[in-house]
Design goal:
The complex is a heterodimer of chains A (104) and B (565). By secondary structure, chain A is mostly helical. Chain A has four helices and no strands. Chain B has one domain: Sodium/glucose cotransporter (Up-down Bundle). In chain B, helix 6 runs antiparallel to helix 7, helix 9 packs parallel to helix 20 and helix 13 crosses helix 18. Classes of the chains: A mainly alpha (104), B mainly alpha (565).
Chain lengths: 104, 565
């Protein structure tokens, strides 16, 4: 019974609602960036292969597609890093405070 | 069965005899003792770890999750080791070797699911589950139907993925040891069984960590050796690769302009993804499939808390992304160093040992016999680490979800559950060996994409909506999950990869390379529609359980007991 009651008390805490909203907005934004970047890339693969095959320097061979592809890999790593950084500093502290203030 | 002679490669003799060996009867090969010794060392070391792990594996919790005592960093490496499959290493580098840029599309798709797992799932999964992703998906729902769906879906994904690994293993060992394909598949099956059966998750985790370190180390070495030839200028390497492809096309009889066109084609997307529907569908399958792979989700239960789960994903994403950058360079390295060297080619100009061997030949080109032996042992280890994780995941679906929860209604003791787990491991090993032999001629990277389509269409929608949508009900999840999974399977069978390539029909009924663009939205739509029209009493319970589930998912309250075994 303690657990259910505790969950209900946390759910009623305004700080819990604020945390959900803050974290929800943040993860939604990061997810949107990742989805847009990846499916933008896939749409380019589908509809404009010549653009991706175009060299970035006239006379060179390294194509725009290679640069975009590598950037996408680095973006995926960077976004996870950004999330972990913020979660470690902000969200963990907020959760810890909620758990501390609502002992079972 | 054709035999390949490694001695010919090893001694650097011209490939004429190799061509003979591919088409003619068996030529007795001098075995590569370097490779065998290195692999034997790996096998001995990992079996010693398995023995150590076996002594620590007493309860079901030890068996499934290593007691929840793996750190975030270790788990990140183990995830990378679980995920960087033989299909990634051999299949993608082979595809880059053949078509250039197209392989990068695969790599990116395999990677971009990871941020999504982190943002939406990893911490919640850790907070809600204990052994399997079905723990999470069924948290507030009727146990029997949701668990049954999750177990079937897990087994389907695991079997598809296992086939790909087994095919890779067979081809690799066929080349390396000159063994028959069938024997090679059996050896992998037996070793994997020993790891999982006795060492459970602890042995599996350490095999995956060791493999990840070995694979990342040797891929780094290969990429550095290739780039060093070009003064670390990728542009110079790409230019040389284009020149090589142009020369090969010209030699094959193309006119000058057609040959130049063929050479340049490796710098951009080519024929691998023909139409926009296939491109999108394929992209969806890779991205969301990653987030629905049961053996990957299972790894989040091996860490003590949500924070460690989060750290694991960061490390995993970093290592996997780095690995795919290396794979790209390795594929191009194979174009410039392997495609023009007759010792790696048969009489018709094809790679000795088959298309998937580009990276293996490159290892010989950059590091000689010794490194060829080493990379072969690493590739073997790679396959073992992945199949061990898959088998463990399949076994836990049967023992934890079907036996302990559905059949025994949660009343099974740990010992009985373990017994069922271990029996399932044996059954899965036999199935993996049989299917590995059946699917010998398939492109391994493509087989993996089939597993991803099923994971994206079944597991992912069910898991995501059970976590994030208050309105989801048991009826909705099971209906949507089953339809998504079923449609993904049926369309896969009707697609070119199975209908034409395996069943031998002239034209595919389903023309696209992946079903996900149809099957995944169908799953989401069905879950939504069936849930909102669900007027059952169970539906009321399901919806009212959301608030408590969310508090636990977001804060981890109540999750502590789950790992305190």
């Amino acid at each position: 019974m303690g657990e259910t009651d505790r969950a209900a008390r946390i759910a009623a805490d305004p700080r819990y609602g604020a945390l959900l909203q803050r974290r929800g907005r943040f993860t939604l934004a990061l997810t949107a960036v990742m989805l847009a970047a990846y499916f933008g890339f896939i749409l380019l693969v589908a509809f404009d292969k010549t653009l991706l095959a175009r060299p970035i320097h006239p006379g060179g061979v390294t194509s725009l597609g290679i640069v975009l592809g590598f950037s996408l890999i680095l973006l995926a790593i960077a976004l996870t890093g950004i999330y972990v950084y913020r979660a470690n500093r902000d969200f963990d502290a907020a959760v810890a405070a909620l758990v501390r203030d609502h002992q079972a | 069965m054709k035999r390949i002679i490694l001695a010919v490669l090893a001694l650097g003799l011209p490939g004429i005899a190799g061509a003979d060996a591919l088409t003619g009867q068996t030529v007795q090969q001098a075995t590569n003792w370097t490779a065998i010794a290195m692999f034997a060392a790996f096998a001995a070391f990992t079996l010693a770890i398995t023995r150590w792990a076996a002594r620590r594996t007493r309860t079901a919790s030890d068996f499934y999750t290593a007691g929840g005592g793996i750190t975030g960093f270790q788990n990140g490496l183990a995830i990378a080791g679980d995920f960087m499959s033989a299909a990634s290493f051999l299949g993608i580098s082979a595809q880059i070797f053949k078509d250039g840029y197209d392989g990068l599309i695969y790599s990116i798709g395999f990677l971009v699911g990871w941020p999504i797992i982190l943002f939406l799932m990893a911490e919640r999964v850790r907070n809600l589950g204990r052994y399997t992703f079905a723990d999470v998906a069924s948290f507030r729902f009727a146990q029997t139907p949701v668990r049954c769906f999750a177990a079937v879906s897990t087994l389907v994904v695991v079997l598809f993925y296992l086939i790909a690994q087994m095919v890779g293993a067979g081809q690799l060992i066929k080349l390396l040891f000159g063994l028959r394909y069938e024997y090679a598949v059996v050896i992998v099956g037996v070793l994997m069984t020993l790891y999982v059966l006795f060492g459970g998750m602890t042995a599996t985790t350490w095999v995956q960590i060791i493999k990840a370190v070995l694979l990342l180390g040797s891929a780094t070495f290969m990429a550095v050796m290739v780039l060093a030839r070009y003064g670390f200028s990728p542009e110079a390497m790409f230019a040389d690769a284009v020149a090589v492809k142009t020369m090969l096309a010209a030699r094959a009889g193309d006119s000058v302009s057609v040959a130049a066109e063929a050479g340049r084609s490796i710098m951009g997307p080519g024929n691998f993804i023909k139409d926009p529907v296939s491109a999108l569908s394929f992209g969806m399958a890779l991205m969301f499939g990653t987030a629905g792979l049961p053996h990957i989700l299972m790894r989040f239960f091996t860490v003590p808390d949500a924070g460690a789960a989060r750290t694991s994903v960061l490390w995993a994403t970093g290592w996997i992304g780095y690995f795919y950058l290396l794979t790209f360079i390795i594929g191009f390295g194979a174009i410039v160093m392997v495609a023009t060297d007759r010792q790696y080619l048969d009489g018709a100009g094809a790679l000795i040992g088959g298309g998937n061997m580009a990276a293996i030949h490159l290892a010989h080109a950059v590091g000689g016999n010794l490194f060829l032996g080493f990379i072969s042992a690493v590739a073997f280890a790679t396959i073992l680490a992945v199949v061990a994780g898959l088998t463990l995941s399949g076994a836990s679906a049967v023992s934890h979800d079907l036996y302990a929860t559905v059949f025994r209604k949660g009343q099974a003791d740990s010992a009985a559950e373990l017994r069922v787990s271990r029996r399932t491991v044996l059954v899965l090993a036999v199935a993996a060996i049989a299917l590995g032999i059946l699917f010998e001629k398939q492109n391994v990277a493509f087989m993996v994409s089939l597993a991803f389509a099923v994971a994206a269409s079944g597991n992912f929608p069910v898991l995501l909506l059970s976590l994030l949508w208050r309105g989801a009900t048991t009826r909705g999840l099971v209906a949507g999950g089953c339809l998504g999974l079923g449609l993904a399977l049926v369309l896969t069978i009707l697609s070119p990869a199975v209908w034409v390539a395996v069943l031998g029909h002239a034209d595919p009924i389903f023309p696209y390379s992946s079903p996900a663009i149809f099957s995944m939205p169908l799953a989401f739509l069905t879950i939504w529609l069936v849930s909102i029209t669900d007027r059952s009493a169970r539906g009321v319970v399901d919806r009212s359980g959301y608030e408590a589930q969310r508090v636990r998912a977001e804060t981890g309250i109540g999750a502590d007991q789950a790992s305190s075994h």
